[in-house]
Amino acid sequence: MASGFQRAKVQAMFDAFDADGNGCLDEDDFEALAARWGRMPRVAGDPELAQRVRSVMMGWWEHLSAVGETAGSGRVDMDALMAMVDRLPAMPWTVTATADTVFDAVDENADGRISRAEHQKLIDTWHGRRTPTQHVFDRLDQDGDGSLSRPEFAVLWTQFWISDDPAEPGNLMCGPLPPTA
Questions:
Q1: Which of 47, 76, 77, 113 supports an S-S bond with 68, CB 3.0-4.6 Å?
Q2: Per-residue DSSP letter, 168
């Protein structure tokens, strides 16, 4: 069962995904999320990547709605998202596949590395708005080389979605933690 720390961390993502602000997630919210990602420069210029991104985003809606749709309403609440988060440790390949797709979408110049600026675009795209990051990237860039490699990114992405340890840097992958975390 997810801790209070995980719930606070994931609540920020729930709020970002809830495009219409109605307190529930539905297919339209994930369509809006896929559309935001579709506007990323590399995604917009690569139809194959665009399809992959859309498939990943909508695939998560399918997983989520299968876990927690409320009585055929087509909507899920925060508790359903947390139930999905509780299942993620048993689905590491799905989390890693998402990390690979997000990496490709964010790696704007296709150099195999995520720069500070590219990471900022990831955060802004997830949240649907400019989101101050303070010194988040410095914590993520553990080797201090100024970028995140694909393997580093995958570890951090997995930590964000699965970790219950507030000290793990991946918890900052989608921006600063909320004050209550």
A1: 76
A2: S
pTM: 0.90
CA distance 50 to 94: 18
Report yes or no: 132 and 143 within 8 Å, Cβ to Cβ.
no
Tokens of 116: 């500070």
SS3 39: coil
Strands 147-149, 113-115: pairing is antiparallel
Query: What are 116-167's pLDDT values in tens digits?
Result: 999 999 999 988 888 888 789 999 999 999 999 999 999 999 999 888 898 9
Compute, in degrees rounded to 10, the torsion defined by CA atoms 102, 105, 106, 107.
120
25 burial via Cβ count (<10 Å: 0-12, 13-18, 19+): buried
